[in-house]
């Protein structure tokens, strides 16, 4: 027990490392990054995806985000009051040798911050995983929690910010502090990836930064269905974010998602 970050009252901590949470990547001995410099050092030293997942999952470098994610994990949304919350940074999910890399934005407070898996536990994720299943890229159409049996050999989902931010808006400093985690993930994944799918304009800019050495001039512009060639073996596809608003208004439809992931699978040599 320790003081709640807002009320000062005693409360149970979010899931600690090594607690037995399904898929828990860390142990009590996993080093915790307490500031931006430590994030950069640990990320640079990571030699495998499992090691990187563990390091990300215990990061405490951004005080505002730490306070928010843990507060949400304690107060909880009423509809999830009987459920445990992950309440920690969310590592990437999927294959360690993916052909397709999907770039999102940040965990949702009552979605991935609750379940511990990218795009899991909210309506955006419901749309995304259903489309991935229709494209034959994952083994089941739903993603509920870390113990639901979801599996893939073909994709990985990552984000430039690993903690749920208040109002879904990380600060520039927080984005910069978190960036080395994604840089390290790309370093380990890049030899395998043939297609990146950017979910939204910001994710598109993040993807271009990741593959900066191969970005043509003029810099490719984001658009739904836009395709950028980043060297002979890598393509970047733009996709509107499967947010509740985009899906509700029809700006993005399930058929449009199917077109994107069907094209991604074909370009990655996974279709047929």
Task: Describe the model.
The structure is a single chain. The N and C termini lie far apart (54 Å). A six-stranded mixed β-sheet has the order 3-5-4-6-8-7, with helices on both faces. Strands 1-2 form a two-stranded antiparallel sheet. The longest helix is centred in the middle third of the chain and has 18 residues. The mean pLDDT is 93. Helix 1 packs parallel to helix 6 and helix 5 crosses helix 9. It has a single domain, classed as Uracil-DNA Glycosylase, subunit E (3-Layer(aba) Sandwich), CATH 3.40.470.10. It is 35% helix and 10% strand. It is built from nine helices and eight strands. By secondary structure, it is an alpha/beta fold. Keywords: 4Fe-4S, DNA damage, DNA repair, Hydrolase, Iron, Iron-sulfur, Metal-binding. It holds the Pfam family UDG.
